[in-house]
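User: Sorry, what's this?
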Amino acid sequence: MEQQEMQQAVALVLAAYRGGEQFDTPAEAVGPQTVAQAYAVQDGVARALWPGQRTRCWKVGAPNKDSEAYSAPIPPRRVHASGARLSGDDFHMIGIEAELAFRVTRPLPPRACLYEEAEVRAALGELCVTIELVDTRLRQWQQAGALWRLADNQINGALIVGGGISDWQGLELAQRPLALTVNGEVLAEQRGGHPLGDPASLLGWSVNHLVARNKGLEPGDLITTGSWTGMRFIAPGAEVCARFPGIGEARVRID
């Protein structure tokens, strides 16, 4: 992408965030052509939406074990505590996903060598349940292509952060039980379901990638690790609950 095209892509996503609208991706080859360019669009939007602030919450995931992982910043005003009530009018679509996220409890500053797995795990002192609400600024998001979706912060709409535990290190996460309900009715009740099996397998890549990208990680920063239930679509007028027994739960009401 030329600089002018990069600015145009940032302007499209930024205007959609600010105006609550969606946009058509340009017909010509204006848009990210590489993952690095998609991240550059994300960064440009972040600098405009929360200027002078660090990104404190990151969406990280991978569709399968053979795919490259990705990251996307979640805007601060779209991160909510469990029990939040949100307006359905603020969303173009409402996808829901049950997830686990890891919270940083020890600082991880930039350094010349990569952080080793033991250091990474020691610095992530909390495991908590989250609900990702999926939404997009792309009008034809399924046809727009993977790089445009990545540039659109991997079609994140909001994140609901629920309860968790600090003593997660000894848990076998791959086959954890979980349930996702809407208005008390079960949408998913299962053991396991994360595309990588154990979401902790993402942590080494996530931390080293984000330390480099975000000039370090600080206590309180949150890293989500992908959906256990796939994306389910719901309509407004819903009470959503994601529960991982032995870890915690997260709830959100969408009016």
About this structure: Helices lie at 3-19, 35-49, 117-123, 146-151, 203-213. The chain is about 20% helix and 30% strand.
